[in-house]
Amino acid sequence: PGLIIGFAAETQDLLRNAEAKLKKKGADLIVANDVSQGSGVGSSGVMGGDRNRVRIVSKAGVEEWPEMSKDDVAARLAALIAERLKTIIV
């Protein structure tokens, strides 16, 4: 595959677990989010709520996205994937 994206929904050690998954899976990106009750996202947390705050983990480092609606996270992620796909030579 030209682009491998994984997801890490973690309750602890978010970045360490996401970086380990990046290496283990040979992924280009891991979309990591803290799903613990104390994540500080929205009033009801990530699970069951309509807001999220993700980190994009890659070999180049970690990009922290601000808290936003889950729809906005999806749109921004789709745009990121589209940009990455433009750079892949098949």
Could you walk me through the main structural features you see in this protein, from its secondary elements to its overall organization?
This protein has one domain: Rossmann fold, CATH 3.40.50. The chain is α+β, with helices and mostly antiparallel strands and 90 residues long. The radius of gyration is 13 Å and the shape is globular. It contains 2 helices and 6 strands. Helix content is 32%, strand content 28%. The model has no long low-confidence stretch (mean pLDDT 86). The strands form 2 sheets. Strands 1-2-4-5 form a 4-stranded mixed sheet, with helices on one face. The chain has a two-stranded antiparallel sheet with strand order 3-6. The N and C termini lie close together (9 Å).
Q: Topology as H/E string?
A: EHEEEEEH
The number of domains is: 1
Which regions contain 5 or more consecutive residues with pLDDT less than 50? Answer: none
Structural classification = alpha+beta
CATH uppermost class: Alpha Beta
Gyration radius (Cα, Å) is 13 Å
The average pLDDT value, as a whole number, equals: 86
CATH topology: Rossmann fold
Structure annotation, total helices: 2
Read across the widest sheet, the strand sequence of neighbours is: 1-2-4-5
Number of strands: 6
CATH superfamily membership, which one? CoaB-like
| Fraction of helical residues | 25-40%
Q: Separation of termini?
A: 9 Å
Instruction: Label the overall shape.
Output: globular
CATH architecture: 3-Layer(aba) Sandwich
Largest sheet: 4 strands, mixed
Q: What proportion strand?
A: 25-35%
